[in-house]
Design brief:
Blueprint: E1 7-9, E2 15-17, E3 25-31, H1 40-51, E4 56-62, H2 74-85, H3 104-112, H4 123-135, E5 151-154, E6 160-164, H5 170-180
Parallel strand pairs: 3-4
Antiparallel strand pairs: 1-2, 3-5, 5-6
Protein name: Glutathione peroxidase
Organism: Sporosarcina soli
InterPro entries: Glutathione_peroxidase (IPR000889), Thioredoxin-like_sf (IPR036249)
Length: 187
């Protein structure tokens, strides 16, 4: 199976093939409108603007599996992102990223790359891990997505190359994105 074999749903219900993004470096993110990581929309938009002319795209998938932090449907989520953060990268319909009803694309992504354990020495990760133990202990098992704003980097050839936890720094994500982008043509 390849990432290009998957279908995704736009907020208006239109079905789109991931084939649409063949040849592009992709950063695929499960998002939420009312999460402590929602500020990352601003960072993601800046990254998108910086690299979009180098065959880079960010794909946002709203998810309401973590603390009811995205109660809107796909249309309202996309509108929220555009209005509050100027998001112009593609946003899709609401998805589930764990458990029954999990979107097939996210099942594929989770199993293509390894994940790292949350570091109890990092305050934000310790807080997140504590909350997960209390509310969603099953999300700490296996390759489950632990929270909103987990990111998957897909190289232009379709290979899923990296998974980032929501607490990973923007600089780390950008550094990895740059490794997989074609080099700009100098004049």
């Amino acid at each position: 199976m390849s990432i290009y074999n998957y279908l995704v749903r736009k907020p208006n219900g239109e079905i789109l093939s991931m084939e649409t993004y063949r040849g592009k470096t992709m950063l695929i993110v499960n998002t939420a409108s009312k999460c402590r990581f929602t500020y990352q929309f601003e960072e993601l938009q800046k990254m998108y603007e910086q690299y979009k002319d180098r065959n880079f795209v960010i794909l946002g998938f709203p998810c309401d599996q973590f603390g009811n932090q995205n109660p809107e449907d796909g249309d309202d989520s996309a509108l929220f992102c555009q209005k509050n953060y100027g998001v112009s990268f593609p946003m899709f319909d609401l998805v589930m990223v764990n458990g029954e009803g999990m979107d097939p694309l996210f099942s594929y992504l989770k199993h293509e790359v390894p994940f790292r354990d949350l570091d109890k020495e990092v305050m934000a990760e310790n807080i997140l891990k504590t909350r997960l133990k209390e509310e969603y202990p099953e999300y700490l098992e296996g390759r489950n997505i632990r929270w909103n704003f987990t990111k998957f980097l897909v190289a232009a050839d379709g290979e899923v190359v990296k998974r980032f936890e929501p607490t990973d720094s923007r600089l780390l994500v950008e550094e990895e994105v740059e490794r997989y982008l074609p080099q700009p043509i100098s004049n």
